[in-house]
Sequence to fold (446 residues):
Amino acid sequence: MNNYNNDSYNIIETLISIFTIEKGEVKILLFRKKNEPYKGYWMLPGKVLNNNESLEENISDYVLENCGFSNLYIEQCLVFSDIDRVPDKRVIATTCIGLIDSKSVELKQEIPDSIESEWFNILTIPKTIYDHDEIIKKSIEYLKNKIINSNILKMLFPSDFTLPELQKVYEQILDKELDRRNFRKKFVSQGLIEDTGYKNEGFSGRPAKLYRFKDDIEEMNLF
Amino acid sequence: MNNYNNDSYNIIETLISIFTIEKGEVKILLFRKKNEPYKGYWMLPGKVLNNNESLEENISDYVLENCGFSNLYIEQCLVFSDIDRVPDKRVIATTCIGLIDSKSVELKQEIPDSIESEWFNILTIPKTIYDHDEIIKKSIEYLKNKIINSNILKMLFPSDFTLPELQKVYEQILDKELDRRNFRKKFVSQGLIEDTGYKNEGFSGRPAKLYRFKDDIEEMNLF
DNA sequence: ACAAAAGTGTTGCCAGTACACCCATGA
DNA sequence: TCATGGGTGTACTGGCAACACTTTTGT
Fold:
């Protein structure tokens, strides 16, 4: 058990699917690859794991440096370890999902000019490198399963939001339409949200009340 | 992104929490450590991952060789990557849960004499090495969350079983008592099981009907 | 006044729960 | 015949789904 040889050493990369809400749409952050192979294709953010840092430290540091987000919510997803998932080199990917609210995205810190990044609607994801499309698919699936049994989406809505906005996000992730009245009833009756007393005026139609998630709500499920 | 140095190489081990049912009790398989440090303590089965095998191949091969199980059901659990989770050496643990029915346990193949192993009731787990107690705790939690929304436990019951037996397993994992009549109603109404026509006679009290899981039932949740 | 979008109330159904009685066997 | 444990039926309840009308704003 304690015998290590050359074959026992592996390259590990952490890859993260960062989601946010931009103009009511659920989006994922991708970087553009700069060199061959797959030059110009899109890819998930992430980097090789050093042997002096944990998975969580690695991805937090990376995200801060390269995306400028200091308060990203992170959860582990799956490990992808097929021998040939990356050509030429054997690289194991440990993957995470990250959630960040749009306000924190706007307030992001300095990031390198050299990185070309873009938020993509989860329904129109471009061609990505290696097995990243598979990883993204699993990440969205993970998110979908998660929001059914937990209130994880509050990580995407720390600031004031309207119930119709929240509903549209649920509809995008679950990929089905929900009833306005029942949706409201569920959230209000569970005591997850509270009225801020403000309204978002200035749009066509009746202004919607602004809500916020209560602070003291804990996650329900670990997985 | 493609620059690797010495710091980029890591030792990865796969560790697996294998569960079965033995005499109605949910049990987990542990090995006994043979050398210092922690000599004599118990530990999860698992081994270092070579760079020519996937996580799933690695753990399947290991389990076959060292536990003798050829048809173990496996799912990924969490990754543990704290720098000092193992003393002296940096080792990352990717963990899995495994489920095997008691009949397959009895029919297991040859395994090395040198391995000392034992099935422990999940309520009375002995002292384990490193962070294995934490890993075991999370594995049980994973299993608990899983059986609520899926029929994963059919992996533990491929052969005939009685409903009271099945119920007791649910009660152990969920750690709460369930109503006999409602439990039966749920499984029968969902069409997950079918009557084999046999009974388990020879015990005190009325004999229980023997059921089996239907073959065509798929998993419902991925996570 | 009209259009657009948000807010509200009622009803029915199904799943889960609580609970009491009967049945088949071994001793 | 009694003890033991398994099988069955009923009534209640709360959550979810289906559905139509009213309210508040901008134009």
